[in-house]
Design a protein that fits this description.
Layout (H helix, E strand, L loop, with lengths): L19 H8 L4 E2 L1 E5 L6 E5 L3 E4 L4 E7 L5 H7 L1 E6 L5 H8 L16 E3 L5 E3 L4 E13 L2 E13 L8 E4 L2 E4 L7
Antiparallel strand pairs: 1-11, 2-3, 2-6, 4-5, 5-10, 6-9, 7-8, 9-10, 11-12
Amino acid sequence: MPPGADPAGRSGDASGAGSGEELRSVARRLATGVTVVTSGTGDAVHGMTVSSFTTLSLTPPLVSFSVKVGARIRGPIETTGAFVVNLLAAEQEPLARWFADPDRPTGTAGIEGRARTAEAPGGGLLLSGAVGYFACRLDRLVEAGDHVIVIGAVDRCQTLRPATVPVLVFAGGGFHALGPRLPG
C-alpha cells in the first residue's frame, strides 16, 4: 500500500483532514434544522438563514450558531447585544431562500413583504409562521477559522405551532420537510 493511503479507500492528507470541498461533501449529508436569525432594530434590522444552530447548554440556557467572518448579521448582533432565532416550518422554504441570498437588501427593505413580523424586546424580529423561537442576549463570539461562533444566553423561547407542523431541514444540498417519526 502506498504511503499515506487509507485502507478504507478514503482520500485526504495524512492527518485525516480532507480538502474544504471534501469536508463540505461529507457535511452536507448531515441533516440540519433551518432557522432565520434576526437582529437589530428599525432600519438597522437584518436577518440571515442559518443551518448551524444548536442548543449548547440547558443550565445556563445557551444556544449557538456559526456565520462566516464578515457576515452582515454580526454588526446588528454586536450593536444590540441581542438576536432571535426563528425555527422555520417546511412551508417557509421560500423565506429560507430569501434570507440566504447575500444580494438581498439590508434593513427593513430586506424583510418587508416577505413575512409578518413583530419586534422582540432587545432587538431582532419574530417571524410569523415559525414553529418556534429563541430570543437571546449575546454571550460571546468565538473566532474559529473562517467562521465566528455566536453564543447566546436564552432569555425566552416558545413553541408557536403544533408538533404536527413539519419543520424545514437542509440535507444533501437542498431543503426538505421533516417526515413522520420512525417507529421504535
